[in-house]
Specification:
The complex is a heterodimer of chains A (255) and B (441).
Chain A (H helix, E strand, L loop, with lengths): L3 E7 L5 H7 L5 H7 E4 L13 E7 L5 H13 E7 L1 H5 L11 H9 L22 E3 L6 H12 L11 H7 L5 H5 L35 H10 L4 H8 L8 H9 L1
Helix pairs in contact in A: 9-11, 10-11
Chain B lengths: L2 E6 L9 E8 L2 E9 L6 H5 L7 H6 L6 H16 L5 H32 L4 H7 L1 H22 L8 E2 L2 E2 L5 H26 L14 E3 L11 E4 L4 E3 L3 H5 L23 H8 L5 H14 L9 H26 L16 E9 L2 E9 L5 E7 L1 H20 E3 L4 E3 L11 H11 L4 H4 L2
The structure holds iron/sulfur cluster (2 copies).
Chain lengths: 255, 441
């Protein structure tokens, strides 16, 4: 049988999503039998150029080199997957969209640094066509395996896009907003993590990016009703997907 | 005049994007650069203006491999600033989490990134086809580290359960006893693990006086401490660290570099074993002795020994994880976490841990509301970069033989004689197990 050829690429990110592939310890050898992984630099020193059926691209675009690499990957791939939240929504590096990247750079490197070009961090879809989004920071192992097995059959999986709140309720957790008057991004964030954080009594930080049809107005009323500071809400909502404007949309509902 | 420039555009089997450029003129090395090409995310700038509750979630994303260290270090810094004391169970659980990370990270490096070099395969997956038992041992130990991180941290990568002063949810009795059973299985593998790595023919790339730095622990071999010891006998406090390591911007790399008294220094498993090896007990102490007699002392400046130190630490991590689990199971698991009211205090906090690759330092300044006004993160790989460059320079100068075709290693290099210099430069870089995402944050 012909092997499925997948390319695994990292732009600017933490490599957590690539590491999630290696964290499938039980399945890894089986995957290696069915899938040829190209350009998986983290795991292999074998250079393989050429076309791939599917490119999993991790990280966001933070420097001109990332953009050049992304464009080349797009050319070489039949399907391109935004692999993880940085790739899909911008992630951490993109949280301060209102601050000029040169200001960020100078804060870290000071006047002694060799000035290099800093560009505002953006998700892949700002530059190229993205065929499929696998969200998460990092991606959930189960969804990764599901995606791989669908790809072997030539399709993409149907990944649920219901909010974390729904999963949280079905796990019968106490609601953190209602119990402790804390900000929780669960109502606006896409599930698929099984409400991982609220189940640990930790509020959702929004690491899987915005859910498509969220009830912003209802959520704004709820948070406002608990007397939570607006600035706090905005700062929490912008951590993982600032370019998608989750915080701003919520803020608009406040007025 | 023979002039040669070797450029390795993309180091493989390391985490992140980095390259090496070296320029030789006759017998001397003109320049050697570890080029860190990874994009910067400017974490220190992003942290400004964010609240103390968000710090750990933000900084854990610096690195997928050592996210637990970043999360714990962040909370230690917050607690230091606000004068928060945590209970002994939280201390133990944090250590357990860090041990899980050590297991995952060291097993990944030893079995996936390093062993293929020794066994002559381009990747661990290729190696696994011919050596399934070795591959499975590596996978088991790696998975065990992840199980611990999942159970304690709430996720194998970017653990959300690590909170200021406590854990969101303390793992229950059943979870902990299941972990204990897995750790016992891991311990049963240690003789085979030590045999495997003691049997490798480890090249002596260098024997060069090296300054090693590690957090010092006088009450066992620990990964959290507020004291730093150097092999020149000096001991420093947490507040002195940024002065001691003197981090600065360099032109050729997005990662900063550090110097100790104007000289390169090393951190990581090898440094820890050199500084704290006397605290090792049981099978870990025996493993260390075994490696030393088979491959020479850890402190004699051969960077390749770092891998053997990682193997020693794998054994230690299993032993220590067992101790913590037994203690937590005996003295109370799964009860409600202590409620803490956190009062922000204006001032500075420092967190220090030993991440898998060495000393990790976080410093935050807070205003009265617990908002971060300044942040400084010094990662292990950034500290090691100057030493990596030094090692590459020395090896190239002593063993590189330039010809019109390229640079190969002289017969004095033993099992690596006649190999391409560029191969050995990668071997040196990989021995440090560099984590490039961490070094550029
Ligand atoms: S999405 Fe998260 S896990 Fe993936 S690269 Fe970004 S920070 Fe890392
Ligand atoms: S609960 Fe929220 S922050 Fe936690 S894993 Fe799920 S989406 Fe991410």
């Amino acid at each position: 049988m012909d092997q499925l050829v997948i390319g695994i690429f990292g732009l600017t990110g933490c490599a957590g999503d690539q590491l999630t592939i290696l964290n499938c310890e039980d399945e890894l050898l089986l995957i290696a039998e069915k899938v040829t992984m190209k350009s998986f630099n983290m795991a292999s020193s074998r250079e393989l150029a050429g076309r791939v059926e599917v490119a999993l691209v991790e990280g966001s675009v933070c420097q001109p080199e990332d953009l050049a690499m992304l464009r080349e990957i797009r050319e070489r791939s039949r399907h391109l997957v935004a692999f993880g939240t940085c790739a899909a929504f911008g992630g951490m590096a993109a949280m301060d969209q209102r601050v000029h990247p040169e200001v960020l750079r100078d804060t870290v490197y000071g006047p002694d640094g060799e000035p290099f070009e800093a560009i505002r961090a953006r998700p892949l879809s700002s530059f190229v066509k993205v065929d499929f989004v696998l969200p998460g920071c990092p991606v959930e192992k189960g969804q990764l395996l599901e995606t791989l097995s669908c790809l072997l059959k030539g399709s993409f999986p149907d990944i649920a896009c219901t909010p974390v709140c729904a999963e949280c309720r079905s796990r019968e957790n106490l609601c953190i907003v209602l119990e402790r008057d804390e900000v929780c991004c669960g109502a606006l964030t896409r599930g698929g993590c099984g409400a991982r954080c609220p189940s640990l009594d930790v509020s959702c930080a929004g690491c899987r990016g915005p859910v498509e049809d969220a009830y912003y107005a209802v959520n704004a009323d709820l948070l406002k009703g608990r007397g939570i500071d607006r600035e706090k809400i905005r700062k929490k909502m912008m951590l993982f997907s600032a370019p998608a404007g989750m915080g701003e949309r919520l803020e608009r509902e406040f007025d | 005049m023979l002039r040669k420039r070797i450029e390795i555009k993309h180091l493989t089997r390391v985490e992140g994007h980095g390259g090496i450029t070296i320029e030789l003129v006759d017998g001397t090395v003109k320049t050697v650069h570890m080029d860190i090409l990874e994009g910067t995310r400017f974490y220190e700038a992003l942290l400004k203006g964010k609240g103390f509750l968000e710090a750990a979630a933000i900084v854990s994303r610096v690195c997928g491999i050592c996210s637990a260290s970043h999360a714990v270090t962040a909370q230690l810094a917050v607690e230091d600033a606000f004068g928060i004391r945590v209970d002994s169970r939280t201390v133990r659980l944090r250590e357990l989490l860090l041990l899980g990370e050590i297991m995952e990270s060291h097993a990944l490096h030893l079995f996936f990134l390093l062993l293929p070099d020794y066994m002559g395969y381009p990747s661990a997956l290729d190696m696994a086809r011919d050596h399934p038992i070795k591959a499975k041992m590596g996978l088991f130990l790696k998975q065990l580290g992840n199980r611990i991180q999942e159970a304690v941290g709430g996720r194998a990568i970017h653990p959300p359960n690590v909170m200021v002063g406590r854990f969101g949810k303390v793992p229950g009795r059943q979870v902990l006893s299941d972990l204990l059973a897995c750790v016992e299985d891991g311990l049963a593998l240690t003789p085979a693990l030590v045999d495997l790595f003691a049997s490798l023919e480890v090249p002596v790339l260098l024997e060069e006086a090296t300054q090693y730095l590690a957090l010092s622990s006088r009450d066992g071999y620990r990964f959290v401490s507020r004291e730093i010891a150097a092999t020149d006998g000096k001991v420093f406090q947490a507040s002195e660290f940024s002065r001691v390591c003197n981090e600065r911007v360099v032109a050729h790399s997005h990662a900063k570099q550090s110097l100790y008294s104007d000289r390169p220094f090393a951190v990581g498993a090898q440094s820890r074993v050199v500084v704290n090896g006397g605290e090792l007990t049981g099978a870990a102490a025996e493993a260390l002795e075994r490696f030393v007699s088979a491959q020479g002392g850890m402190g004699r400046g051969n960077p390749i020994s770092n891998s053997m130190a990682q193997a020693v630490e794998l054994v230690h991590a299993l032993q220590a994880a067992k101790e913590h689990l037994v203690d937590i199971l005996t003295n109370g698991a799964g009860d409600a976490p202590p409620e803490t009211v956190i009062e922000p205090v204006k001032g500075t906090g420092i967190g220090l841990t030993e991440a898998p690759r060495g000393i990790l330092y976080h410093r935050y300044d807070f205003d009265d509301n617990g908002i971060i006004t300044e942040a400084d993160i010094i990662t292990p790989t950034a500290q090691n970069l100057a030493n990596i460059e030094r090692d590459m320079r020395l090896v190239a100068e002593r063993f590189g033989e330039i010809s019109a075709d390229g640079v190969v290693l002289s017969p004095a290099m033993g099992c690596l004689a006649n190999r391409d210099l560029s191969f050995v430069l990668q071997v040196i870089a990989r021995a440090y197990d560099p984590c490039i995402s961490c070094s550029v944050h």
